[in-house]
Each structure stands twice: as structure tokens, then as C-alpha cells.
User: Fold GFA family protein from Thalassovita mangrovi.
Amino acid sequence: MRRGSCLCGDIRYEVEAEFGPATACHCIQCRKATGSYSIAAPVPRDSLSIKGDPRWFESSPGTRRGFCPDCGSYLFWDEGDGSIWVSLGTVDGATGTRVENHIFCAYKGDYENLTDAVPHHREGWSSEEIE
Ligand SMILES: [Zn+2]
Ligand SMILES: [Zn+2]
Assistant:
């Protein structure tokens, strides 16, 4: 069981499943939503229980981003496909997972250093690697 919360603590969650491999996303939407870039990992939607009332923003058709309406913490990314991605910075304690891919690196900020050894994809997971 993993637990997490937003900055103010009004939204808390528990995850019964283990997180899948984490992805760092540098797309424009994730940059705007987080203020930097997103690091998140998927779990089955039915393994996540949310306490509190996140606000959901439909950032593209069928994809919703959940955040705390009070403190603004970006918590969840839901494509409606049965899994949900959890922002790993909101997990309290160990996550048990690790970044295995960077995606949409073509859109990363010019202030970022991408120096780790995992793949840096130009666009999505199946796109070519850059750098
Ligand atoms: Zn909050
Ligand atoms: Zn993104």
C-alpha cells in the first residue's frame, strides 16, 4: 500500500497496486501543469482510492488531469483507459519505481539538463531517441 497527498493535505490517496515503470514527460501540457516536467507512473484505476475532491481538467479530448483546487498540486493523469498515472512527487515515502523513459524531449525547456542513462525520446514512447 502506497499513500500520497497534495501540498495542503486536502486530497489524499491510497494505491493498492505497485506502480508501473515511471515516465518523465516534457510535453508542453505537462510543463504548464507542473511548472517543470512531469514524472508519473501508472496503476490500475481500480487500485487507487482518492479521499477529497480533486478538480479535473480535460487537457485534451478524453484525457483529464486531476489537481487540488486549493493548493494546485498536480496529482493524476487519466486517459480513461483503465489505468491512471500518479505524479510521483505526491507520493509520501518510497514509490518502488524509477524513471525508465523521458518522452516529448523535443519540447523540454532550455533550462533542463537531461543527463541520465535512460532513453530520451523525441516524441512519445515509440519515437526515435535523441541526445
Ligand atoms: Zn491541496
Ligand atoms: Zn506530458
About this structure: The first strand starts at residue 2 and ends at 5. The chain has one domain: 2-107. The two ends are 37 Å apart (CA to CA).
